[in-house]
Amino acid sequence: MTSVPAAANWTDSAGGMGADAAGNLSSALGAGAVAGTAEAEWLQLLVQGGNLSASSSSALGLPAASLAPSQPRANLTNQFVQPSWRIALWSLAYGMVVAVAVFGNLIVIWIILAHKRMRTVTNYFLVNLAFSDASMAAFNTLINFIYALHSEWYFGANYCRFQNFFPITAVFASIYSMTAIAVDRYMAIIDPLKPRLSATATKIVIGSIWVLAFLLAFPQCLYSKTKVMPGRTLCYVQWPEGPKQHFIYHIIVIILVYFFPLLIMSITYTIVGITLWGGEIPGDTCDKYREQLKAKRKVVKMMIIVVVTFAVCWLPYHIYFILTAIYQQLNRWKYIQQVYLASFWLAMSSTMYNPIIYCCLNKRFRAGFKRAFRWCPFIEVSSYDELELKTTRFHPTRQSSMYTVTRMESMTVVFDPSDADSSKSSRKKRGAPRDPNFNGCSRRNSKSTSTTSSFISSPYTSVDEYS
Protein backbone atom coordinates (compact mmCIF):
# COMPACT_ATOMS: atom_id res chain seq x y z
CA MET A 1 0.00 0.00 0.00
CA THR A 2 2.89 2.27 -0.66
CA SER A 3 3.72 3.83 -3.97
CA VAL A 4 7.51 3.57 -3.86
CA PRO A 5 8.78 0.35 -5.41
CA ALA A 6 11.76 -1.88 -5.00
CA ALA A 7 13.27 -0.67 -8.24
CA ALA A 8 14.96 2.26 -6.54
CA ASN A 9 17.87 0.29 -5.11
CA TRP A 10 20.97 2.10 -6.22
CA THR A 11 24.72 1.59 -5.70
CA ASP A 12 27.87 3.65 -6.00
CA SER A 13 29.57 3.19 -9.37
CA ALA A 14 32.27 5.89 -9.14
CA GLY A 15 34.34 4.19 -6.50
CA GLY A 16 34.54 7.37 -4.46
CA MET A 17 32.99 5.79 -1.40
CA GLY A 18 34.18 2.82 0.58
CA ALA A 19 32.54 -0.56 0.20
CA ASP A 20 30.77 -0.28 3.55
CA ALA A 21 29.44 3.18 2.79
CA ALA A 22 28.20 2.08 -0.60
CA GLY A 23 26.51 -0.93 0.95
CA ASN A 24 24.82 1.22 3.58
CA LEU A 25 23.67 3.68 0.95
CA SER A 26 22.28 0.89 -1.20
CA SER A 27 20.55 -0.70 1.77
CA ALA A 28 19.05 2.56 2.93
CA LEU A 29 17.86 3.52 -0.52
CA GLY A 30 16.38 0.10 -1.11
CA ALA A 31 14.62 0.04 2.24
CA GLY A 32 13.32 3.54 1.74
CA ALA A 33 12.07 2.82 -1.75
CA VAL A 34 10.55 -0.55 -0.93
CA ALA A 35 8.75 0.30 2.26
CA GLY A 36 8.03 3.96 1.63
CA THR A 37 10.44 4.89 4.42
CA ALA A 38 12.61 7.32 2.48
CA GLU A 39 12.75 9.58 5.48
CA ALA A 40 15.25 10.90 8.00
CA GLU A 41 17.80 8.08 8.13
CA TRP A 42 17.54 7.37 4.42
CA LEU A 43 17.98 11.01 3.40
CA GLN A 44 20.83 11.38 5.88
CA LEU A 45 22.69 8.55 4.16
CA LEU A 46 22.06 10.24 0.83
CA VAL A 47 23.67 13.38 2.25
CA GLN A 48 26.64 11.35 3.43
CA GLY A 49 26.91 9.84 -0.05
CA GLY A 50 27.10 13.29 -1.62
CA ASN A 51 23.68 13.30 -3.27
CA LEU A 52 22.08 16.02 -1.16
CA SER A 53 23.64 19.25 -0.04
CA ALA A 54 23.90 20.21 3.59
CA SER A 55 21.42 23.01 3.04
CA SER A 56 18.76 20.66 1.67
CA SER A 57 19.35 18.35 4.60
CA SER A 58 18.77 21.17 7.05
CA ALA A 59 15.64 22.18 5.22
CA LEU A 60 14.27 18.70 5.83
CA GLY A 61 14.98 19.03 9.52
CA LEU A 62 18.03 16.75 9.48
CA PRO A 63 21.43 17.51 10.97
CA ALA A 64 23.74 18.92 8.36
CA ALA A 65 26.40 16.52 7.21
CA SER A 66 29.75 18.03 6.39
CA LEU A 67 31.48 16.31 3.51
CA ALA A 68 35.23 16.35 3.18
CA PRO A 69 36.34 18.65 0.36
CA SER A 70 38.30 15.86 -1.21
CA GLN A 71 35.38 13.40 -1.19
CA PRO A 72 34.02 12.97 -4.74
CA ARG A 73 30.30 13.09 -5.49
CA ALA A 74 28.84 9.60 -5.80
CA ASN A 75 27.51 8.62 -9.19
CA LEU A 76 24.48 6.42 -8.66
CA THR A 77 23.28 3.94 -11.25
CA ASN A 78 20.25 1.70 -11.24
CA GLN A 79 21.02 -1.93 -10.45
CA PHE A 80 17.59 -3.08 -11.61
CA VAL A 81 17.47 -2.12 -15.26
CA GLN A 82 15.31 -4.77 -16.94
CA PRO A 83 15.52 -6.05 -20.51
CA SER A 84 12.84 -4.89 -22.90
CA TRP A 85 11.16 -8.30 -23.18
CA ARG A 86 10.67 -8.49 -19.42
CA ILE A 87 9.24 -4.97 -19.30
CA ALA A 88 6.85 -5.94 -22.10
CA LEU A 89 5.65 -9.03 -20.21
CA TRP A 90 5.09 -7.11 -17.00
CA SER A 91 3.31 -4.35 -18.91
CA LEU A 92 0.99 -6.90 -20.50
CA ALA A 93 0.27 -8.52 -17.13
CA TYR A 94 -0.51 -5.23 -15.41
CA GLY A 95 -2.48 -3.92 -18.37
CA MET A 96 -4.68 -7.03 -18.29
CA VAL A 97 -5.41 -6.50 -14.59
CA VAL A 98 -6.42 -2.89 -15.13
CA ALA A 99 -8.62 -3.63 -18.14
CA VAL A 100 -10.48 -6.56 -16.56
CA ALA A 101 -10.83 -4.88 -13.17
CA VAL A 102 -12.11 -1.55 -14.46
CA PHE A 103 -14.54 -2.82 -17.08
CA GLY A 104 -15.64 -5.86 -15.10
CA ASN A 105 -16.47 -3.88 -11.97
CA LEU A 106 -18.19 -1.13 -13.94
CA ILE A 107 -20.44 -3.78 -15.50
CA VAL A 108 -21.20 -5.17 -12.04
CA ILE A 109 -22.24 -1.68 -10.91
CA TRP A 110 -24.44 -1.30 -14.00
CA ILE A 111 -26.09 -4.70 -13.50
CA ILE A 112 -27.10 -3.83 -9.94
CA LEU A 113 -28.15 -0.22 -10.38
CA ALA A 114 -29.93 -0.63 -13.73
CA HIS A 115 -32.12 -3.57 -12.66
CA LYS A 116 -34.54 -3.10 -9.81
CA ARG A 117 -34.56 -6.78 -8.95
CA MET A 118 -30.83 -6.63 -8.19
CA ARG A 119 -31.09 -3.79 -5.67
CA THR A 120 -30.74 -5.79 -2.47
CA VAL A 121 -28.76 -5.07 0.69
CA THR A 122 -26.02 -7.49 -0.28
CA ASN A 123 -25.77 -6.08 -3.79
CA TYR A 124 -25.47 -2.49 -2.54
CA PHE A 125 -22.37 -3.56 -0.66
CA LEU A 126 -21.19 -5.30 -3.83
CA VAL A 127 -21.55 -1.94 -5.62
CA ASN A 128 -19.30 -0.34 -3.02
CA LEU A 129 -16.81 -3.18 -3.36
CA ALA A 130 -16.83 -2.91 -7.15
CA PHE A 131 -16.37 0.87 -7.05
CA SER A 132 -13.36 0.68 -4.73
CA ASP A 133 -11.75 -2.10 -6.79
CA ALA A 134 -12.28 -0.29 -10.10
CA SER A 135 -10.94 2.97 -8.64
CA MET A 136 -7.80 1.38 -7.26
CA ALA A 137 -7.11 -0.42 -10.54
CA ALA A 138 -7.62 2.76 -12.55
CA PHE A 139 -5.79 5.27 -10.36
CA ASN A 140 -3.12 3.24 -8.58
CA THR A 141 -2.02 0.10 -10.40
CA LEU A 142 -0.45 1.49 -13.57
CA ILE A 143 1.06 4.54 -11.85
CA ASN A 144 2.73 2.33 -9.26
CA PHE A 145 3.94 -0.05 -11.95
CA ILE A 146 5.53 2.80 -13.93
CA TYR A 147 7.23 4.07 -10.79
CA ALA A 148 8.50 0.57 -10.04
CA LEU A 149 10.05 0.25 -13.50
CA HIS A 150 11.68 3.67 -13.81
CA SER A 151 12.27 4.76 -10.21
CA GLU A 152 11.20 8.19 -11.38
CA TRP A 153 8.10 10.06 -10.22
CA TYR A 154 6.58 11.82 -13.23
CA PHE A 155 3.19 12.82 -11.81
CA GLY A 156 3.74 15.80 -9.51
CA ALA A 157 3.40 16.48 -5.81
CA ASN A 158 -0.41 16.41 -5.64
CA TYR A 159 -0.71 13.01 -7.27
CA CYS A 160 2.09 11.77 -5.02
CA ARG A 161 -0.12 12.53 -2.03
CA PHE A 162 -3.10 10.90 -3.71
CA GLN A 163 -1.03 7.85 -4.67
CA ASN A 164 0.05 7.27 -1.09
CA PHE A 165 -3.40 8.02 0.31
CA PHE A 166 -5.93 6.32 -1.96
CA PRO A 167 -4.76 2.67 -2.00
CA ILE A 168 -5.27 2.29 1.74
CA THR A 169 -8.66 3.99 1.44
CA ALA A 170 -9.78 1.68 -1.38
CA VAL A 171 -8.55 -1.51 0.28
CA PHE A 172 -10.27 -0.52 3.54
CA ALA A 173 -13.54 0.11 1.69
CA SER A 174 -13.24 -3.22 -0.15
CA ILE A 175 -12.53 -5.44 2.82
CA TYR A 176 -15.13 -3.81 5.07
CA SER A 177 -17.77 -4.07 2.35
CA MET A 178 -17.09 -7.80 2.42
CA THR A 179 -17.29 -7.73 6.22
CA ALA A 180 -20.64 -5.93 6.11
CA ILE A 181 -21.96 -8.58 3.72
CA ALA A 182 -20.76 -11.33 6.06
CA VAL A 183 -22.49 -9.74 9.06
CA ASP A 184 -25.67 -9.18 7.01
CA ARG A 185 -25.68 -12.83 5.89
CA TYR A 186 -25.14 -13.89 9.49
CA MET A 187 -28.09 -11.85 10.75
CA ALA A 188 -30.37 -12.96 7.90
CA ILE A 189 -29.68 -16.65 8.44
CA ILE A 190 -29.05 -17.00 12.16
CA ASP A 191 -31.65 -14.49 13.36
CA PRO A 192 -34.11 -14.16 10.45
CA LEU A 193 -36.91 -12.52 12.46
CA LYS A 194 -34.93 -9.35 13.02
CA PRO A 195 -35.53 -6.57 10.48
CA ARG A 196 -33.00 -6.34 7.67
CA LEU A 197 -31.03 -3.22 6.89
CA SER A 198 -33.07 -0.64 5.05
CA ALA A 199 -31.75 1.20 2.00
CA THR A 200 -31.06 4.26 4.15
CA ALA A 201 -29.22 2.26 6.80
CA THR A 202 -27.17 0.54 4.12
CA LYS A 203 -26.10 3.91 2.68
CA ILE A 204 -25.14 5.09 6.17
CA VAL A 205 -22.99 1.99 6.71
CA ILE A 206 -21.28 2.48 3.34
CA GLY A 207 -20.67 6.17 4.09
CA SER A 208 -19.22 5.28 7.50
CA ILE A 209 -16.84 2.79 5.87
CA TRP A 210 -15.45 5.50 3.58
CA VAL A 211 -15.11 8.02 6.41
CA LEU A 212 -13.10 5.53 8.49
CA ALA A 213 -11.03 4.68 5.42
CA PHE A 214 -10.17 8.36 4.89
CA LEU A 215 -9.15 8.76 8.53
CA LEU A 216 -6.91 5.70 8.46
CA ALA A 217 -5.15 6.77 5.25
CA PHE A 218 -4.89 10.48 6.07
CA PRO A 219 -1.35 10.29 7.58
CA GLN A 220 -0.09 8.93 4.26
CA CYS A 221 -1.45 12.03 2.54
CA LEU A 222 -0.22 14.39 5.25
CA TYR A 223 3.39 13.23 5.22
CA SER A 224 3.79 12.55 1.49
CA LYS A 225 6.72 14.36 -0.10
CA THR A 226 8.40 14.66 -3.46
CA LYS A 227 12.16 15.13 -3.61
CA VAL A 228 14.09 16.24 -6.69
CA MET A 229 17.43 14.47 -6.79
CA PRO A 230 20.22 14.47 -9.38
CA GLY A 231 18.68 12.75 -12.38
CA ARG A 232 15.33 11.78 -10.87
CA THR A 233 12.40 12.71 -8.61
CA LEU A 234 11.16 10.63 -5.68
CA CYS A 235 7.72 10.29 -4.12
CA TYR A 236 7.80 9.04 -0.55
CA VAL A 237 6.29 9.40 2.91
CA GLN A 238 8.43 11.34 5.38
CA TRP A 239 7.26 10.43 8.86
CA PRO A 240 8.20 12.86 11.65
CA GLU A 241 9.85 10.15 13.75
CA GLY A 242 11.46 8.26 10.92
CA PRO A 243 11.16 4.73 9.53
CA LYS A 244 10.23 3.17 12.86
CA GLN A 245 7.03 5.22 13.00
CA HIS A 246 6.19 4.22 9.44
CA PHE A 247 6.73 0.54 10.26
CA ILE A 248 4.37 0.78 13.25
CA TYR A 249 1.76 2.51 11.09
CA HIS A 250 2.08 -0.15 8.42
CA ILE A 251 1.56 -2.92 10.99
CA ILE A 252 -1.57 -1.14 12.26
CA VAL A 253 -2.86 -0.86 8.68
CA ILE A 254 -2.25 -4.56 8.04
CA ILE A 255 -4.15 -5.49 11.20
CA LEU A 256 -7.10 -3.18 10.42
CA VAL A 257 -7.45 -3.93 6.71
CA TYR A 258 -6.44 -7.59 6.68
CA PHE A 259 -6.30 -9.69 9.84
CA PHE A 260 -9.16 -8.14 11.84
CA PRO A 261 -11.84 -8.17 9.11
CA LEU A 262 -10.74 -11.63 7.96
CA LEU A 263 -11.13 -12.87 11.54
CA ILE A 264 -14.67 -11.48 11.71
CA MET A 265 -15.60 -13.02 8.37
CA SER A 266 -14.06 -16.36 9.31
CA ILE A 267 -16.20 -16.55 12.44
CA THR A 268 -19.44 -15.42 10.79
CA TYR A 269 -19.11 -17.64 7.71
CA THR A 270 -18.15 -20.63 9.85
CA ILE A 271 -21.32 -20.26 11.90
CA VAL A 272 -23.42 -19.65 8.79
CA GLY A 273 -21.85 -22.63 7.04
CA ILE A 274 -22.60 -24.93 9.96
CA THR A 275 -26.18 -23.68 9.99
CA LEU A 276 -26.78 -24.08 6.26
CA TRP A 277 -24.82 -27.26 5.62
CA GLY A 278 -24.86 -28.86 9.06
CA GLY A 279 -28.27 -30.49 8.69
CA GLU A 280 -30.72 -31.35 5.98
CA ILE A 281 -34.32 -30.23 5.77
CA PRO A 282 -36.78 -33.15 6.14
CA GLY A 283 -37.58 -34.79 2.83
CA ASP A 284 -41.18 -33.59 2.54
CA THR A 285 -40.44 -29.87 2.78
CA CYS A 286 -42.02 -27.98 -0.10
CA ASP A 287 -40.04 -26.76 -3.09
CA LYS A 288 -40.18 -23.09 -2.10
CA TYR A 289 -38.22 -23.64 1.10
CA ARG A 290 -35.75 -25.90 -0.60
CA GLU A 291 -35.15 -23.25 -3.25
CA GLN A 292 -34.52 -20.59 -0.62
CA LEU A 293 -32.06 -22.85 1.18
CA LYS A 294 -30.17 -23.56 -2.03
CA ALA A 295 -30.15 -19.85 -2.90
CA LYS A 296 -28.73 -18.95 0.50
CA ARG A 297 -26.05 -21.58 0.14
CA LYS A 298 -25.07 -20.25 -3.28
CA VAL A 299 -24.74 -16.67 -2.04
CA VAL A 300 -22.70 -17.69 1.00
CA LYS A 301 -20.47 -19.93 -1.13
CA MET A 302 -19.89 -17.09 -3.59
CA MET A 303 -18.94 -14.64 -0.85
CA ILE A 304 -16.62 -17.14 0.84
CA ILE A 305 -14.77 -17.53 -2.46
CA VAL A 306 -14.53 -13.73 -2.79
CA VAL A 307 -13.07 -13.41 0.72
CA VAL A 308 -10.60 -16.28 0.29
CA THR A 309 -9.45 -14.81 -3.03
CA PHE A 310 -8.82 -11.44 -1.38
CA ALA A 311 -6.89 -13.05 1.49
CA VAL A 312 -4.67 -15.13 -0.81
CA CYS A 313 -3.92 -12.21 -3.15
CA TRP A 314 -2.90 -9.75 -0.45
CA LEU A 315 -0.97 -12.06 1.89
CA PRO A 316 2.33 -12.15 -0.10
CA TYR A 317 2.26 -8.34 -0.44
CA HIS A 318 2.00 -7.81 3.32
CA ILE A 319 4.63 -10.45 4.05
CA TYR A 320 6.97 -8.79 1.54
CA PHE A 321 6.84 -5.39 3.24
CA ILE A 322 7.21 -6.80 6.73
CA LEU A 323 10.27 -8.87 5.76
CA THR A 324 11.99 -6.08 3.80
CA ALA A 325 11.41 -3.65 6.67
CA ILE A 326 12.90 -6.05 9.23
CA TYR A 327 15.67 -7.49 7.06
CA GLN A 328 16.78 -4.52 5.00
CA GLN A 329 19.60 -6.46 3.37
CA LEU A 330 16.94 -8.16 1.28
CA ASN A 331 16.56 -4.91 -0.64
CA ARG A 332 20.00 -5.46 -2.20
CA TRP A 333 19.10 -8.90 -3.55
CA LYS A 334 19.26 -8.78 -7.33
CA TYR A 335 15.84 -10.43 -7.75
CA ILE A 336 14.02 -8.26 -5.22
CA GLN A 337 12.44 -6.08 -7.92
CA GLN A 338 10.88 -9.14 -9.55
CA VAL A 339 9.57 -10.28 -6.17
CA TYR A 340 8.04 -6.85 -5.62
CA LEU A 341 6.44 -6.72 -9.06
CA ALA A 342 5.02 -10.23 -8.62
CA SER A 343 3.60 -9.60 -5.14
CA PHE A 344 2.18 -6.25 -6.18
CA TRP A 345 0.61 -7.77 -9.32
CA LEU A 346 -1.02 -10.50 -7.25
CA ALA A 347 -2.42 -7.94 -4.80
CA MET A 348 -3.77 -5.74 -7.58
CA SER A 349 -5.22 -8.75 -9.40
CA SER A 350 -7.67 -9.17 -6.51
CA THR A 351 -9.58 -6.27 -8.08
CA MET A 352 -10.36 -8.25 -11.25
CA TYR A 353 -11.48 -11.62 -9.86
CA ASN A 354 -14.78 -10.59 -8.27
CA PRO A 355 -16.69 -9.92 -11.53
CA ILE A 356 -15.50 -13.29 -12.81
CA ILE A 357 -16.68 -15.01 -9.61
CA TYR A 358 -20.09 -13.32 -9.77
CA CYS A 359 -20.53 -14.32 -13.42
CA CYS A 360 -19.59 -17.95 -12.79
CA LEU A 361 -21.54 -18.51 -9.57
CA ASN A 362 -24.63 -16.30 -9.85
CA LYS A 363 -27.15 -16.76 -12.67
CA ARG A 364 -28.47 -13.19 -12.46
CA PHE A 365 -25.03 -11.64 -12.74
CA ARG A 366 -24.35 -14.07 -15.56
CA ALA A 367 -27.51 -12.88 -17.33
CA GLY A 368 -26.40 -9.28 -16.75
CA PHE A 369 -22.98 -9.91 -18.27
CA LYS A 370 -24.66 -11.53 -21.27
CA ARG A 371 -26.77 -8.42 -21.73
CA ALA A 372 -23.70 -6.22 -21.43
CA PHE A 373 -21.83 -8.23 -24.08
CA ARG A 374 -24.78 -9.07 -26.31
CA TRP A 375 -23.06 -7.21 -29.13
CA CYS A 376 -20.48 -10.01 -29.31
CA PRO A 377 -21.36 -12.56 -32.03
CA PHE A 378 -20.84 -15.56 -29.75
CA ILE A 379 -22.98 -14.22 -26.86
CA GLU A 380 -26.64 -15.14 -26.97
CA VAL A 381 -29.15 -13.71 -24.50
CA SER A 382 -32.03 -16.13 -24.00
CA SER A 383 -35.53 -15.28 -22.86
CA TYR A 384 -34.69 -16.95 -19.56
CA ASP A 385 -31.79 -14.53 -19.08
CA GLU A 386 -34.12 -11.60 -19.68
CA LEU A 387 -36.59 -12.94 -17.12
CA GLU A 388 -33.86 -13.40 -14.53
CA LEU A 389 -33.33 -9.64 -14.38
CA LYS A 390 -36.89 -8.43 -14.94
CA THR A 391 -39.30 -10.67 -13.05
CA THR A 392 -39.75 -11.96 -9.55
CA ARG A 393 -40.78 -15.52 -9.02
CA PHE A 394 -42.12 -15.08 -5.48
CA HIS A 395 -43.87 -12.10 -3.95
CA PRO A 396 -44.57 -13.20 -0.38
CA THR A 397 -46.55 -10.78 1.75
CA ARG A 398 -45.58 -9.93 5.27
CA GLN A 399 -48.45 -12.02 6.62
CA SER A 400 -47.71 -15.13 4.59
CA SER A 401 -44.05 -14.86 5.46
CA MET A 402 -44.92 -14.68 9.12
CA TYR A 403 -46.78 -17.93 8.74
CA THR A 404 -43.59 -19.69 7.77
CA VAL A 405 -42.18 -19.33 11.26
CA THR A 406 -45.21 -20.21 13.38
CA ARG A 407 -45.68 -23.67 14.81
CA MET A 408 -49.37 -23.35 15.72
CA GLU A 409 -51.99 -25.40 13.98
CA SER A 410 -55.03 -23.30 13.30
CA MET A 411 -58.56 -24.71 13.56
CA THR A 412 -61.37 -23.61 11.27
CA VAL A 413 -64.76 -23.06 12.96
CA VAL A 414 -67.83 -23.42 10.71
CA PHE A 415 -71.28 -22.17 11.78
CA ASP A 416 -74.20 -24.14 10.34
CA PRO A 417 -77.20 -21.75 9.88
CA SER A 418 -79.43 -24.54 8.52
CA ASP A 419 -79.81 -26.15 11.89
CA ALA A 420 -82.70 -24.03 13.24
CA ASP A 421 -83.47 -26.30 16.17
CA SER A 422 -80.03 -25.81 17.59
CA SER A 423 -79.72 -22.12 16.83
CA LYS A 424 -79.43 -21.20 20.49
CA SER A 425 -76.60 -23.59 21.07
CA SER A 426 -74.97 -22.49 17.79
CA ARG A 427 -73.80 -25.93 16.84
CA LYS A 428 -70.18 -25.81 15.66
CA LYS A 429 -68.53 -28.09 13.23
CA ARG A 430 -64.86 -28.50 13.29
CA GLY A 431 -63.08 -28.32 10.02
CA ALA A 432 -60.05 -30.36 9.30
CA PRO A 433 -57.00 -28.93 11.07
CA ARG A 434 -54.49 -27.34 8.78
CA ASP A 435 -50.97 -26.04 9.16
CA PRO A 436 -50.46 -22.63 7.54
CA ASN A 437 -46.75 -23.21 7.58
CA PHE A 438 -46.95 -25.42 4.55
CA ASN A 439 -49.24 -24.17 1.84
CA GLY A 440 -49.18 -26.96 -0.67
CA CYS A 441 -46.49 -28.88 1.19
CA SER A 442 -46.53 -32.28 2.79
CA ARG A 443 -47.42 -32.39 6.48
CA ARG A 444 -45.23 -35.34 7.33
CA ASN A 445 -42.50 -34.33 9.78
CA SER A 446 -44.21 -30.95 10.02
CA LYS A 447 -43.00 -30.17 13.51
CA SER A 448 -39.34 -30.63 12.72
CA THR A 449 -39.76 -28.94 9.38
CA SER A 450 -41.32 -25.83 10.86
CA THR A 451 -38.48 -25.60 13.32
CA THR A 452 -35.86 -25.78 10.62
CA SER A 453 -37.68 -23.48 8.27
CA SER A 454 -37.28 -20.59 10.66
CA PHE A 455 -33.85 -19.89 9.18
CA ILE A 456 -35.04 -20.35 5.62
CA SER A 457 -37.68 -17.64 5.50
CA SER A 458 -38.30 -14.49 7.45
CA PRO A 459 -40.90 -11.73 7.25
CA TYR A 460 -38.28 -9.41 5.77
CA THR A 461 -36.79 -11.47 2.96
CA SER A 462 -37.79 -13.39 -0.12
CA VAL A 463 -36.00 -15.82 -2.34
CA ASP A 464 -34.96 -12.90 -4.56
CA GLU A 465 -32.69 -11.71 -1.79
CA TYR A 466 -30.52 -14.80 -2.13
CA SER A 467 -30.68 -15.81 -5.77
From TrEMBL:
One GO biological process term is: positive regulation of flagellated sperm motility
The membrane-spanning stretches of this chain are 87-113, 125-150, 162-183, 204-223, 247-278, 299-327, 339-361
Q: Which UniProt keywords apply?
A: Cell membrane, Disulfide bond, G-protein coupled receptor, Glycoprotein, Lipoprotein, Membrane, Palmitate, Receptor, Transducer, Transmembrane, Transmembrane helix
| Alphabetized InterPro entries for the sequence | GPCR_Rhodpsn, GPCR_Rhodpsn_7TM, Neurokn_rcpt, NK3_rcpt
Q: Which GO terms describe its molecular function?
A: tachykinin receptor activity
GO CC, alphabetical: plasma membrane; sperm midpiece
Cystine pairs: 160-235
Q: Where is the composition biased (Low complexity)?
A: 447-467
Q: What is its main location?
A: membrane
**Where is it localised?**
Cell membrane
Instruction: Quote the PANTHER family the UniProt record gives.
Output: G-PROTEIN COUPLED RECEPTOR TKR-1-RELATED (PTHR46925), NEUROMEDIN-K RECEPTOR (PTHR46925:SF1)
Q: Which family is this protein grouped under?
A: Belongs to the G-protein coupled receptor 1 family.
Name of this chain's protein: Neuromedin-K receptor
